[in-house]
Amino acid sequence: MVFRSMQTATMALLGIVGFTAPPTVAQQPATGTKVVQFMGLEGVKAKSTGRLTLEGGNLQFTSSNAKANVPLHLIVDVVTGNDSQRVFRGTIGTLTMFAPYGGGRFLSLFRSKVDTLSIQYRDAEGGLHGAIFTMATGKADALKKEMVAQGAHTSIPIQDDAGSSDAKPAAAKEKKP
User: Domains in the chain, start-ordered, CATH in brackets?
Assistant: First the structure.
């Protein structure tokens, strides 16, 4: 008799605890690269924060409010901030520092804190569009490399780490006696 009443009390207690305990949902790991889409994607507001993924031959931007897909074979150009720095180094890069009111210096500081990825793509009717994304430093080059490997096109070839523009050839390095 005592055993039966303890069993009933235990079942009632477990029922109450099970009913009041909030259900837990396993969190899915975040996939893709966290980006800010500055402008350019159809149906997505400017400066929207979301994730950029490569799935099924498409570049997908997903935010809480919108989703956009661009087939990789329709991307005619992919350019990163590092590509732009390689192209505009030297005299032109130095001259941009002298923009009125220190604007060039300000912009160069801003560019070093984030990576940028710009794409040009064609829609189904052949119209040319562009989109600009910013992301954490070090992410844009890897994303560009993966996009080109899956069918996107680029006007500036991908540079390997070994051939980095910062590395000097052996003959150009300073020799100490």
Answer: 33-82+114-149 (2.30.29.30)
Q: Which stretch of 43-47, 139-143, 168-172 has the lowest confidence by average pLDDT?
A: 168-172
Bridge partners of 51, per DSSP, are 34, 62
**1-40 pLDDT per residue, tens:** 666 676 776 776 666 655 555 554 444 445 888 999 989 8
- Least confident stretch, 68-72, 100-104, 156-160: 100-104
Q: How far apart are CA 52 and CA 48, in angstroms?
A: 12
Instruction: From 130, 112, 113, 108, select the one nearest 121 (Cα to Cα).
Output: 130
The residue type found at 127 is G
Average pLDDT over residues 149-159: 88
Separation CA 95–CA 28 (nearest Å): 48
- 3-state class (DSSP) for residue 120: strand
pLDDT the model gives residue 3: 64
Strand partners, 67: 62
The answer to whether residues 57 and 40 touch, using CB atoms and an 8 Å cutoff, is no
Number of H helices, E strands in the chain: 5, 7
Residue 41 near residue 56, CB atoms below 8 Å: no
Question: Which residues are bridge partners to 24 per DSSP?
Answer: none
**Which amino acid is present at 24?**
T
